[in-house]
Amino acid sequence: MRLTLDCICVDLGRRAALRDVTASFEPGHLTLVIGPNGAGKTTMLRAAAGLVKPVSGEVRLDRRAVSAIHGAERARAVAYLPQGGTVAWPMPVRDVVALGRLPHGEQPDRLSVSGRDAVEAALAAVGLKGFESRSATALSGGERARVLLARALATSAPILLADEPVAALDPRHQLIVLDVLRERARAGATVVAVMHDLALAARYADEIVVLTQGRVQASGRPDEVLTEARIAESFGIEARVSVTEDTLVVTARRPLG
Fold first, then answer.
1. Cα–Cα distance measured from residue 47 to residue 253, given in angstroms and rounded to the nearest whole number
2. Quick one: which H or E segment has residue 58?
3. I need a labelling partner for 55 at 20 to 30 A (CA). Which of 89, 92, 193, 200 fits?
4. Are 160 and 192 in contact (CB under 8 A)?
């Protein structure tokens, strides 16, 4: 399922958060959205999920406006993983992940065969096999972050939106989660994630969108977008960009100014 943002403008109070944002996200691609703090990355993802109403422009799933899709139907189409999500109740990990099946009319204690398979696959994907009976509130912050990602994966939605999914993770689990997102895309999903780590974005992204002050500054393949000049302009840092063993490598060196 293709996700399209067509000339999206979003105001948050008196502040213009997004201005004329146009982007298309394709099935089979992992797209990473990068940009400095306050650039509008989270607002862009929330608008794409139908959680923020644009003042103008349109978000479409294939050819259908997301504003015309409601409730469980939209939740089955778009799985959204917010930044810094929490688990409020001391539920077993398996039950939290199984909440991802609610849009399919399934309860954690009454899953279909496909629902059980989706939950088990999601737990395995994020490295939480053996955690099923543990209380989600007793886990570390990084473990809870993976529980919430597993919940989003269990929905089996054709579109997955993730806001800073590796922010609370150690380096090993950052790589595990990015592998999961890439594999989900390779399986045919449209996967869009917000990130701050330019080195990881260069390594994992099929496409990169750069936001600056609520506008798309650049989009395309990592080698097209992550140039030293653009990194300096967008992030205010000096960086070295090179290719090592066919891998794009971005190394931040020092702030500018």
1. 34
2. strand 56-61
3. 193
4. yes
Instruction: For the chain, list the domains and their CATH numbers.
Output: 3-84+157-255 (3.40.50.300)
- 202-229: pLDDT as tens digits: 999 999 999 999 999 999 999 999 999 9
Q: State the chain's mean pLDDT as an integer.
A: 95
Question: What's the CA gap between 141 and 129, in Å, rounded?
Answer: 17
Residues 9/57, Cβ–Cβ less than 8 Å: yes
Identify the bridge partners of residue 30 per DSSP, sorted by sequence position: 191
In sequence order, which residues have a C-beta less than 8 Å from that of residue 85 and are 6 or more positions away? 144, 145, 148
Give yes or no for a contact between 91 and 165, defined as CB atoms under 8 angstroms apart.
no
Task: Give the type of residue at 180.
Answer: V
Per-residue pLDDT tens digits for 73-107: 999 999 999 998 888 889 999 999 999 999 999 99
Query: How would you class 138 by CB atoms within 10 Å of its CB: exposed for 0-12, middle for 13-18, buried for 19 or more?
Result: exposed
Q: Position 36: which residue type?
A: P
Is the separation of the CB atoms in 90 and 30 below 8 Å?
no
List Cβ neighbours of 141 (8 Å cut-off, separation of 6 or more): 168
User: Mind listing the pLDDT tens digit for each residue in 29-63?
Assistant: 999 999 999 999 999 999 999 999 999 999 999 99
Rounded Cα distance, 207 and 199, in Å: 14
Q: Which amino acid is at 251?
A: T
